[in-house]
Specification:
about 300 residues, mainly alpha, 13 helices, globular
Length: about 300
């Protein structure tokens, strides 16, 4: 561990930063949930589930643990208050221009997370139905894809006459993963557990390839999920609700697009590009099978 680069330690430290926000805030939300009776609701028509007197506002803690470090980091760099960090991690100074350059992309991601979080909070109190949520998810996915220029299968652009196909595939992928994480939020600890495992796997990949910005966001997501999971393991004392599942799903989906899985000059084969499918196999399989069963039943 002593031989790890300082930038790796800085990214790993962000896990603790997010954890210190998510853990106590989730505990507070458990108390407030029982006081104000913000319990799990029936949801949209056609979704049968056992209602329990468990608050479903845990997504607030997850969102805060992701949004606060992200916003604080951008603000510190914007105002130039970076001397303390660069004094301890001199290598960080080399990446400050990159952070400034990527600020519009980070703000776009943050804005989309705010929109999805508010959408989920409203839906948790009064079901909005699937079409409103789908339109908003597609809009947010399109926004981050276009503004951040994050695209899958860019090598196909010359053969298809432009980037339209890769843009469409990227938007659909982000929407798919967001929904897949939302779908598996139906058992104690499942969505948060899957998010924690997936974020840890992708974090390892970004650290190996030196993608420090993406690694930092994955570390924050990991810490946010762990803090919530402490109160969500069976029997759950709180649920994340759509206010949390949409946030973790969208964040994870976007970061899978930004992560590098194959570097010709580094160790590892071309099959590394299938890492997202392997890591997210459980939620993707669940999403596809549940969708097919519902459609076959006319739901």
């Amino acid at each position: 561990f002593r031989t790890l680069p300082p930038m790796v330690w800085l990214c790993l430290l962000l896990i603790l930063v997010a954890l210190t926000i998510s853990l106590p805030l989730t505990g507070l939300l458990v108390r407030l949930g029982h006081r104000f009776e913000t319990f799990d609701s029936a949801g949209a028509e056609g979704h049968a589930k056992e209602l329990r007197r468990v608050p479903n506002t845990g997504g607030i803690a997850i969102f805060a643990a992701i949004a606060i470090p992200l916003a604080a980091g951008l603000l510190v760099v914007k105002l130039g208050f970076t001397e303390l960090l660069t004094a301890r991690v001199p290598e960080l100074a080399n990446h400050l221009p990159g952070i400034i350059q990527q600020t519009p992309a980070a703000l776009t991601l943050l804005a989309c997370l705010v929109i999805l979080h508010l959408l989920g909070l409203i839906d948790d109190r009064r079901a909005l139905g699937p079409w409103v949520k789908l339109v908003v998810m597609l809009g947010c996915a399109a926004a981050v894809t276009l503004v951040t220029k994050s695209r899958l299968f860019t090598l196909l652009d010359p053969q298809l006459g432009g980037p339209w196909a890769s843009i469409a595939v990227t938007v659909l992928w982000i929407t798919l993963v967001t929904n897949a994480l939302n779908f598996i939020d139906n058992m104690d600890g499942l969505c948060a557990g899957v998010t924690t495992i997936a974020a840890a796997c992708f974090l390892a990949a970004t650290l190996l390839h030196g993608q420090w910005f993406i690694a930092a966001l994955l570390a924050v997501l990991l810490g946010a999920s762990l803090g919530f999971l402490a109160f969500n393991i069976p029997p759950a004392r709180i649920f994340m609700g759509d206010g949390g599942s949409l946030v973790v799903g969208f964040t994870l989906a976007f970061l899978t697009v930004r992560t590098t899985y194959y570097d010709p000059e580094a160790a590892g084969g071309w099959y590394g590009v299938f890492m997202p499918l392997a890591v997210l196999a459980v939620p993707l399989y669940d999403f596809i099978t549940v969708s097919l069963v519902r459609l076959s039943q006319g739901k």
